Structure prediction request, 648 residues.
Amino acid sequence: MKNGFRQSMAWVHTWGGLSVGWILFFVFLTGTLGYFDTEIDRWMKPELPKDTSTMEQALTVAEARLEQKAVGAERWFISPPTNRDNPNLRIFWQMPGEEGKRGITGNELLDSTTGDALSGRATGGGQTLYRMHYALHYLPTDVAYWIVGICSMFMLVAIITGIVIHKKIFKDFFTFRPQKGQRSWLDIHNLLSVTALPFHFMITYSGLIFFAFTYMPLIVSSSYGTGEDAEQAFFDELFEETDKAERANIHADLASLSAMVAIAQSQWGKDQVRYIDIANPGDANARVSIGRQLDSPLRSSPELVFDGVSGELLSNKAAATSAPRTVRDTFLGLHEGLFANITLRWLYFLSGLLGTAMIATGMILWTVKRRPAQLKQAKGPDVGHRLVESLNLGTIVGLPIAIAAYFWANRLLAVDFAARSEWEVHSMFLVWAGTLIYSFVAWPVVRNITRHWIHLLWLAAAAYSLLPVLNALTTDRHITRSLINGDWLFAAIDLTFLVTGILFAFTAFKLQHRVPQAAPKKRAAPAANQHAIEPDAPTTPQEAV
Amino acid sequence: MLLAFALAYITCITLCLAMNRHFQQLLPNQKISPKIAMLLRNSGWILLLLTIIYCTKLVGVAVGLVLVLGLFSAAACLLALLLNYAPRVALGLVVAAPLASLL
Prediction:
């Protein structure tokens, strides 16, 4: 450490952050959209009406369907449409497996008024976007987990070294000095990092905890040995249900589920039933566990356990079990934010955008800092510098355009096209590849890369602001109708697209109108005025939020 | 919920006013005395405590703490932008935000 501790940390922060920045940007942006995953699901299946059934109807429909599909099952699981996470009735079943193996499982979404399986267009929905933030796409999941995991570890290191190298966290807490080139980029990067620091730390750390067993397998191996069987033994022990009822293999009818649900509702209040979990349905040893809505970061629900045949309330199970388990569940719960009501959900979304913008500004800062010296070189900027410039543009503006393309594909692909949900995703990645190629066209002309930024920003502006129009043309849920009907979900998503589009347009406009002033100075005095040669790179829309 | 945001915002602006540079941005024609700065800083920390207490009363300790952090991220970023682009709006919100929450 010949340069001292802080300089070493600055080096780690700069290069560690840069090397994985683009993947982190992808992870943060898709993960942030995940806070509205079910809302996006519904937007992407516009044919489906809003579920307005009662609990009674949902239970009748679910039980009838399960009896039809899964007699003699080991487990039935009913999620009634009582929360945002479950806008439609969902059933799941698991048949008994052979010796020690998991049986066949199935699940269905049902219309809880008619009892039909829910149709609607095939779509990846918000779930596919959400899944990408930890499993990426086109890659085996194990490989993806490792890639995301290593990037997250870099992120954690970047957060900690960032705190170390930030000299005036409190004094500069509210500081943002615009129009000052590199200084402004550092200010905004600091502002985005510091104001949402607890979120950034929590989300990165808890993200790693999700896959702790994947990332640190040797800790398990040291007690359980290696190999798949050992792993299975560990998980069986870890997640074992303590009071699992053994099958009696004597037939007995299931008692009334609605009576049990009524008991739960009288204890917790209406709409507080999150799920009904039935072990050994149709057997003399049936158990019904009714889970409560999540109302805190702890990721598990308190349960009421009933005897499935007599309908008698057996026990009241607390959500928290052991202390380590509680810590883990709390971190995972904080990460997922399933407990968050609408206000808190928007705050989660905003914090996610701040994190995305933090990554973007960090990477832009890297180029802004080096661009003047690079442009002065006789043979032009280095390959590495050009690479970063192009990847930045193709990712920071390219990825949002690609995500818009995902939504466009949802509305434009033929509804009966067999591979449509795959092609939604292909469209997204093809468009992303397109924007990256366009950014690499800027390769020989780094000096004019601002022009390419402007083009892509306008494209993003058009892609987002026209989405509500496309929605109006291709479905019967146009924005005025959503507003009149009080369908806030559709209205809010359309409005969010519109606002995103406007922010992109605003950024493009601002950038466009700065270029003519900066350009002549570039040629006149490249060395004299450091700030003049930095084309004011644009703010990302996330910052403007 | 809006009152909680108003509290977080007022906390931020109070702490902000206690700093010379930001005081100049918000009230360019006035000078801040060390005594006032101290007073503002202390009130800011007390307001911070009050915001935390209010949020935990509102939605419970566990969710309340998450809410506080989210609100402060939003309030601090908003304030930092307003300081530069619309300092008068920044001051106006001190009155407007709590009023809006009463509506």
